[in-house]
Fold these 4 entries.
Entry 1:
Amino acid sequence: MDAPRGMADKAMLRTLRGDQPSRPPIWLMRQAGRYLPEYRATRAEAGSFLDLCYNPDLATEVTLQPIRRFGFDAAILFADILLVPQALGQKLWFVEGEGPRLEPVESREDLGRLKRTEDIHETLEPVYETVRRLSGALPRETTLIGFAGAPWTVATYMVAGRGGLDQAPARKWLYSESEGFAKLIDLLTEATIAYLLRQIEAGAEVVKVFDSWAGALAPDQFQKYAVEPARRITVAIKAIHPDVPVIGFPRGAGAGYAGFAKATGVDAVALDTSVPEEWARDALQSDSAVQGNLDPILLITGGDALVRRAERLIEILGDGPYIFNLGHGITPEADPAHVETLVRTVKG
Amino acid sequence: MDAPRGMADKAMLRTLRGDQPSRPPIWLMRQAGRYLPEYRATRAEAGSFLDLCYNPDLATEVTLQPIRRFGFDAAILFADILLVPQALGQKLWFVEGEGPRLEPVESREDLGRLKRTEDIHETLEPVYETVRRLSGALPRETTLIGFAGAPWTVATYMVAGRGGLDQAPARKWLYSESEGFAKLIDLLTEATIAYLLRQIEAGAEVVKVFDSWAGALAPDQFQKYAVEPARRITVAIKAIHPDVPVIGFPRGAGAGYAGFAKATGVDAVALDTSVPEEWARDALQSDSAVQGNLDPILLITGGDALVRRAERLIEILGDGPYIFNLGHGITPEADPAHVETLVRTVKG
């Protein structure tokens, strides 16, 4: 497409900038994923999951697949939150059916083995290339979202060397040697800023910061390691790109969602599945747009329950700035026909 | 002990009944557990974990161990939330180092294989015997807590046949065939009531209902499957034993904690680690007592951070009805010396 990409006809951007489109924009977390046969085909062609992330041709293709099929209002760059630690020099691999593995970073001394922030771009250049291609390839009404993992969530994987139930290794470090742990968070905050700025320069129109394990933090640590890094990232981005909206996702923050947008400056907060919609309307929507939070299980089970719940969310949240989404990523078991039904329900 | 057990000198009961002792009572979730060498010795003697649960001698012993060592204000019956499904006829076993396994109950038809509520007591009689022995053996200032898993949480294990990350099997059932799933929740609600009433008759002075996976429910389902069963259980207990306090623990409820005590009638809500203390004071403590919510990781790491955080919780919550506890069970890695420090800090 040669036409310049503007915001006038983008429902997602309009919502994030305080305008109210006639219906909420919709996209779904992990919308490019295993529930789609075309994704599985491209994934098989790519080789490993990381090969797919670093292949601009194929990463562009899988990002576009759900846009073609469902006409979502936003496309989100296909990548992984662990590319940043890899770009910082940490060894990363994926065990099929189990998830990511990393050579753990467990102490202040281990931090010395990591690269400097300015050196991450060499590894991440193919990701920026994917963003550039997407920026040229998307329909003009589709908003392009870039993203990164939040420093705390990325740190939980870096320290544990894998995903886990309670993020205990990172939590132990933050209590037992808080200065060293704060250095890791500082490094990740800087790297995240640098990474997101490059995505924006490559064409990302919105950026989202995924703090999937924010709910594992006690309240004082949540302020220190979830709120404060999100604020620093948002301020740094807006200092250079004041018009680029930032979406925060402090998953599991519970009552900690209240005040998160004000404290960090994000333009929208993504709500996990547990957040009550009336509470979101009353306690959150005056501070920022909200995004969420349909139970992804409903895209497996479908039926009336799916339609009724989607309608309910729109009824309660649709009078304020609202972006329709799930409360968690779509699962491999989801039925594309149910996604179709959902999109029809939201688009009206 | 022959002296009758009254409430006059029990800090825990006084707090739950709206009185304000000079300092918050303290006990810890899973205080009888693997972090204690004397527990590990008794556990080895017992054989399997289930053998320990069903052995009144040894279950009494492990319940008393942390009382002897630390002088906690409350003892909680040593048992497991999965004894109820086992008493209902579901096959249950534990895989060492992995956790519980059950023969899954996956459909309405499977419900027909379960026993009736009135038949659970035969299996559970040794648990009631443990409560009777504890009632006679505890120091008079120590409150005896009985407990059960909440219907939703127990159902997640019954349906999945094991513990899991997202409780997806139960969530799928509740959406895809909600009437059948509601029958399972009804059966568990009745069984839980019958179980807790027997514990009270055997000497439990307080009962706690653990809804460990409440946070996995979308808000509408949280009302239906967490709030409503907790209300029914509380009403049924108070109809017969109006003076027995009930503690609810809708772990991960986030903003759903607000209004939970009013909607269910519980006398206290146990707070998970993520709940901000100022919010608990402002939004919850006017409705009920609160209990919690120190990060259990601090009992691994210890030091100033432990003492400062405990003091902070007491400072913010200590002016209202407050029971000191963790936000989640104590871990096997916890250091008994740090528990000692914590108890000293709280008892002043």
Note: Residues 251 and 306 of chain B are 22 Å apart (CA to CA).
Entry 2:
Amino acid sequence: MKKHNFNSGPSILPQEVLAKAARAVLDFNGIGLSILEIGHRSSWFVDVIEEARSLVKELMQLSDEYEVLFLHGGATTQFMQVPMNLLDDGETAAYCDNGIWGSKAAKEASLFGNVNVVASSKDKDHTYINKGFAIPANSKYLHLTTNNTVEGTQWHRFPVTDIPLVADMSSDIFSRPMNFNQFSLIYAGAQKNMGAAGVNLLVVKKTVLGKIKRPIPVIMDYKKHIDANSLMNTPPVFAVYVALLTLRWIKKEGGLKEMERRSNEKANLLYSTIDSLPIFTSHVVKEDRSNMNAVFFLTHPEQEAPFLELCKQEGMIGVKGYRTVGGIRVSMYNALPLESVQAFCDLAKQFAAKRG
Amino acid sequence: MKKHNFNSGPSILPQEVLAKAARAVLDFNGIGLSILEIGHRSSWFVDVIEEARSLVKELMQLSDEYEVLFLHGGATTQFMQVPMNLLDDGETAAYCDNGIWGSKAAKEASLFGNVNVVASSKDKDHTYINKGFAIPANSKYLHLTTNNTVEGTQWHRFPVTDIPLVADMSSDIFSRPMNFNQFSLIYAGAQKNMGAAGVNLLVVKKTVLGKIKRPIPVIMDYKKHIDANSLMNTPPVFAVYVALLTLRWIKKEGGLKEMERRSNEKANLLYSTIDSLPIFTSHVVKEDRSNMNAVFFLTHPEQEAPFLELCKQEGMIGVKGYRTVGGIRVSMYNALPLESVQAFCDLAKQFAAKRG
């Protein structure tokens, strides 16, 4: 049976990326060795990581002020590593609390300096994105999560401010073009739109670094990673390679503009279907809805279990909402075909016709 | 041409591990999804990580006092994470300086407490392992690197002490049986004897944890990882799976006893050949020689380049010594067949016959 992979992350990857990754595990580029057994300082791998760094700069149209790194870990590592590098003892950072991950990021930052939560949508269960809030001038940076995977909201416009913007883009990186040069630092765990779990993308404006007096452990120091061309220690070689394959695929398919066109098409189909069926209820403010993760509920909670069971029978993976939120979550990352969203919508209509 | 992979890490893996890993990238266990696109909280992956944790306990014959974790990053991450968890402000840790990695570990620890280098073989370029040194009773722990990948030395007996022993086993984990219960904490980057780069194995005696007053960032906190069964955040899924495949292979081949028998056989062949050929010089004290990494030099330095060129022509990968040491390094990890060592020795003899 055909599987429809709506996983929130790790999530669906393009079939050709998987095919090429599998081939490289057996024999990388015909050299007679696996990608898993080549040295990270060999020209074979240096070429991989350099092409990946360069493709990130190209796809995001980053100016020369930016450096691109591939680092160990996921976004949770960056919750710690960002303030380690940017927030000195006694300084204050502004954080937006628009979901579980942003809130966790703020908590970690409080170990390194003062945290000022300048915007929070907790009053309405994180079902909207704050707008027009004040950012105190003494803020070292403003941290926000561009897409809230768990709650199904997404920033569609960003604050215009002189305070350096720091963004966790783990769940919507490479899904839409924007002026990425408005951010001073961007990070993203790879396992949604960029590849396999185990590697972080880090994009940083060099001028924000080197201002901290507190010593930074070498493995956490962005500056030292930049000096080492993202090869300070053995990187997660395979995850970097899968990221390269995914970046090549994005470019070949038409870049971020095309990714956005597909995302809009999938999200429009999904949300218009849900909105047309009274058996579903969505709490997220419409203008803040995420194009990546649609979060909604069965209007009659007793219908949730049979609906999830039906999804399972039809090969639909990962549609159960996050454990703290419940309900349904349909994740529509770059690699998810429109056909999968169509199949879900058909099933939803069929369920509504029988049970509505 | 057949390649002989003497890489120091990432390094050679068993062919059947590579074949199974490649298959899982296409379709994991026949479920119709890639290992790269399944959720880390799915029963599919929970089974993987639980089997891997359990195989580590079995192969190392660990008592119930120990927990096994798979964490993001490599040994360099642990250089920071170990003192974060074990060394409080003002406390002192004892470190052995027997090579470049141990020395780096000590440097990172000094950011968290006092470091007392209780043993150093720096006086002779780290060509031996210290013995019979004193460990002050106030030491929070004693850190040592069981195998020095760069310098080619290995600990064959360990200090008997009441001070908790902490060991970086990155380059000889699973290569020999020993009483692992003599250590309070063991860590190892996976990319030598255990799989692909991007994951750390951590073995820890629970009783040494929870004694630090300084707050620990959540992603660095061993205790929180234990509470979450090594699934606090998205782990490096593929690297954990490759570790599981490698652990299964080790068990099937006969466990650590058989790995040691093979290592001894390979190392004896290599060292006896080198010792018999005057064109080679080895500076490492014989009783401290590493079974994993043989480090030696051409007696006449001008012969190094032609010898390395010959190795390259014959498909021998990774035999150039570490950049700070130079010379030749032959790494003989678990997956390296005896045939590759034989091929290297034959080539060495052939070179000696012509140039000796």
Note: The two ends of chain B are 27 Å apart (CA to CA).
Entry 3:
Amino acid sequence: MYDIIIIGAGSAGISAYKQAVKHTDNILIINHGPWDTTCARVGCMPSKLLISSANRLHDAQTLENVGIQANLKVDTSNVMSRVRKYRDHFTSAVLEDVNSWKDKHKINGIASFIDKSTIQVNNQTYQAKSFILAVGSEPRRNEEWEKIGNRLLTSDTIFELEQLPQSIAVIGSGSIATELAEALYHLGVEVTIFSRSSHIAIATSPKIQSLIQENFNQKLNIHFETTPTSLTKEKEWVCVKYKNRENQNEEEIKVEYVLNATGRTSLLSSLKLENIESSFSDIKNLPIDNSTKQLKNYPIFIVGDAYTTTPVQHEASYEGKISVNNCLSYPNVNDKKTYPPLSIVFSSPEIAVVGKSYKQLKDAEHKFTVGFASYTDQGRATVLGKNIGGIEVYFDSTTQELLGAEIYVTEAEHLAHLLAWSLSEKANLKQLLSKPYYHPTLEEGLRTSLRDAYSQLKSSD
Amino acid sequence: MYDIIIIGAGSAGISAYKQAVKHTDNILIINHGPWDTTCARVGCMPSKLLISSANRLHDAQTLENVGIQANLKVDTSNVMSRVRKYRDHFTSAVLEDVNSWKDKHKINGIASFIDKSTIQVNNQTYQAKSFILAVGSEPRRNEEWEKIGNRLLTSDTIFELEQLPQSIAVIGSGSIATELAEALYHLGVEVTIFSRSSHIAIATSPKIQSLIQENFNQKLNIHFETTPTSLTKEKEWVCVKYKNRENQNEEEIKVEYVLNATGRTSLLSSLKLENIESSFSDIKNLPIDNSTKQLKNYPIFIVGDAYTTTPVQHEASYEGKISVNNCLSYPNVNDKKTYPPLSIVFSSPEIAVVGKSYKQLKDAEHKFTVGFASYTDQGRATVLGKNIGGIEVYFDSTTQELLGAEIYVTEAEHLAHLLAWSLSEKANLKQLLSKPYYHPTLEEGLRTSLRDAYSQLKSSD
């Protein structure tokens, strides 16, 4: 009987393994498919590589924003190969790490539960005192759309394109859809977005969302509340039919590719959790503790994006690590997630939500004060020629404690870190205003939003 | 008798006025020259405008770093007019503010002390219970060099150039010299630096300094430990003679302009402080409290860059504000500067020093541990094609409290804010390691440096 069996060797599973092996040699990690991570292979890294080329090109094409007239001719034919070159650099670093692990710890195969302490892999059974389930997720599939064959892309396949497409329809407007659609647009691809919702990415605040849409509408064709009615392959093109929301007409566009970015599906169903408890067949409603990721009262922890509302890499790694501590101390399960929520979309400008979102606070009927700062006249943003968007900060109206923020400004990722770190210190408004803000920086815009909150709270005293 | 007389209406004086006027109408602010700030007119803002054009152009000229072949023809003839256009936008915002102040509060003229509570301006005397001296500084002058007339520039005059020069010799390698020299180089100007020292800008750590020099040496001609022996005007050129440090030969270069960026001189001497106490004629050694900026035990506070080792705008504003509180509570002088030191040079990559510098810790024989992370293979920096430099973090070897950091990486300003805010929380290493670091960000490189410090402290346990 093993001390711990880890199922899945992605960001969460690898983190769990590295933590576990510090404490016990009596462990097993089982993985199906490549022994690298979604993040490095098809997620964070290749998307950020594409975005980095896109942003640099967009900046070069808008040199007039900083007083430079330019005649620019570009050849983007190496962009996709650069994505893969560095993607391979990142995945091989992961694989090198995995290759250094003991062979006896690793099994290739699909695992499924027989009972609460027994799993089966490749027709063999293994038992453990505790389990860490880190099986991850995959892009949501749509069989109807798959009829167009390799013209239907997902985030799993798009980075394999030899060349940038001429045109693409992106279905979805979540984080992945938003990042890829905008990056492709900046790289010269004709992009049309179809979104079931009327939102772009993660911002829930009406004001921040409207700033995002204002900017996106200037660049991209977006059909909100519209899903294609059919995709058909016609010679070199894919015909995308849809009902125009405004005039209710059936319309169509022809594109080279379609990207299905409608979300991701957990791979938990492969584990046959119903063999532990029959009710666990409903994998969307598993009794999982949000802060320990424990499954009911079992020594079983479900970590990473197999079961989460915040599929981000740093949380997956963190969950992998603390779940090991909880496996080893079971039945005491004390190690809890303490990170404040932090989500970033690497659009241009970037979108970030830190702590509680506007919608979460509204839904909870929390009495909160919103401080806002526009960046259209923010000093440093103006200097950079990137004076777009704004920031909202949320404070408890009584205690003045920081609750969260939604951000849509250039380099939002850094302001988001400042606020996330402050949340972890339970900082209040006065403390935040007493921090140094160097001049001239984007951080000064954050202070403007804090001062806005302060003036409201003061006047309501 | 006024409650407070403020002398100087720059960043510190304006901040002081705004704080003072909240409490008393019985104030006076006296200013010589323009009623805007060094920062907005000839400092932070125009330099950052120039740098922003320079960085954008440099990024466009290195598109191959992100997989894009480009043929780029640029016309930079509007760069200087853009600098002035936005500079004027920023100065007019300051002036608009000043114009809204009561006329009876403002006097144009040069002030000097007659005794500790009396000053003279335009042959008239004024008395006050307390004084805030915010007279600022000016570029250091050199009469010998001034013989080349308008071909000798300072940071006061360089932004008035109609066009970028073809070539320039920059004398000095401090923050201002470094920022301007590199920006001009990126804008296509032929730049040669002459530096009395063997250092570039503010980094005191041998390792960080060597990373900076490695990068600068690839771009610019730098003559360390060399001051020009003569500057002479020859028709359209300035001939700069100097002794070559390596072969001891007399050599010369011809340039269009020379920038004297050898430092700044306090304007305190105009105030005749010796009429308060004769020893105050030695303005370099005034008895000023570092945290309150009080002059000896007088109700006199010297704020901003008239007397400081850290001439940065956010500290000037801060000092202006707290000095008002101390004027009003005098003889109780309790309001102290609590900001941790934070200095940023907006080079590319940026240089930042936070808290105690390497040299300060060495000089104080502090027992400290240095954590280092190179950014040459840092994930996000690699993705951005900006994988240059590194970061050092300093921790007390006993308490593991954060002491400071020196940084030379892209977007260092943001990591510097994170660390400065952490210093103000007196964070220790363990607390810093428990913060969220989103993936993939430059902040993860900071964590790498923290882990390096951790492994050293752990192994020395």
Note: The first strand of chain B starts at residue 2 and ends at 7.
Entry 4:
Amino acid sequence: MAIDDPKDPILILASQSPRRRYLLEQAGLSFSVIPSRFDEEAVPFKPGDAPEDYVRKLAQGKALEVSARYPRSWIIGADTTVMIQGKNLGKPSSNAEAFEMLKQLSGETHEVHTGFCICSESAEKRFSQSVRTEVLFKELTHAEIDWYIKTGEPFDKAGGYGIQGVGIILVRSINGSYTNVVGLPVCEVIETLIREGIAGFCSGNGFDLNRPENVSSGAFG
Amino acid sequence: MAIDDPKDPILILASQSPRRRYLLEQAGLSFSVIPSRFDEEAVPFKPGDAPEDYVRKLAQGKALEVSARYPRSWIIGADTTVMIQGKNLGKPSSNAEAFEMLKQLSGETHEVHTGFCICSESAEKRFSQSVRTEVLFKELTHAEIDWYIKTGEPFDKAGGYGIQGVGIILVRSINGSYTNVVGLPVCEVIETLIREGIAGFCSGNGFDLNRPENVSSGAFG
């Protein structure tokens, strides 16, 4: 998929996640990738936080940081978190932590929340949403967990697994959006882009994109 | 992923579907691809057929045909069918047929059934299973359906869409196995391979495979 002018992009994905990039490419969008410098560590998940609000807040933080640098572009920011029994699972930083996470997920249902935010500073527009998916893991043996950790896949992923990788064999079923578990609920993102006049179905493959100045202005909402 | 000796493979995928191949590679299996010559047209879906039995029967037919040619190998055969309101949707053969199918799916929940069969003639073993997933489409406008048909994606796929392609933007949510909708329920396939001693978690990445003669023999069941 061709990328729009990288010096002056119409649409920017404010994430360095190769999985989010892949999903938007799969959907047929043209965009540039400019990772956000927003400091997630400064906004840790606190017990009692509603995960749907938390991921929206972080997605907004990420998108707005890039929007300030690229005011003439549309920015997509996103954040994903994994919850089990009211507890937030981050990204494991050691084999032992990955083992503990995967043991917790084994045979159980957990929730994946992804928030996304689409905004433009020049158009003074901001749209955000969060989507929830339930994921049921099969029962994992210790040997299976050890084997999976050796693939290296757990370490840069919330919850310690990647559904779009070898981790697919750990997941028995899901209830909700699949792409939400990968890291971006593509159906809802495209719906927002179409509804707000940012993207249109073009006559060839893919989407036409409208610059913020071509989309009627409204309140930052 | 490396392919085992193509002249004498331990494991064969009896399908020419690039999507099934991709799923097994994603899971980390080594295998060869040898499409089945089983004649599906000779076993059409009849009104009143139970889809779970139908897809198992076809998966068995496909696997056994290749097994007869490669008796020393393990064979994986599979068949996928899409059902809506008790009706079986095949692969559309024209723009008009694709349009009708997608219009039927729009805003509704349909069922995807995939049957798989793993067998070996020399070991006299056969294991089969079918898996069901519910898929909810978003409401599609006529413009959206026309646009999707122009991508060319509907034409070689049961139900007229591909969830692993641009079709991902049509799907709001699923209930069940995602890979089952793509064409092969990978979690259940790997479970069968492990349970029956055909595959084992190896010390490096991927799986160790056992030839049929190394797996204790039993009745063809």
Note: The longest helix of chain B spans residues 51-69.
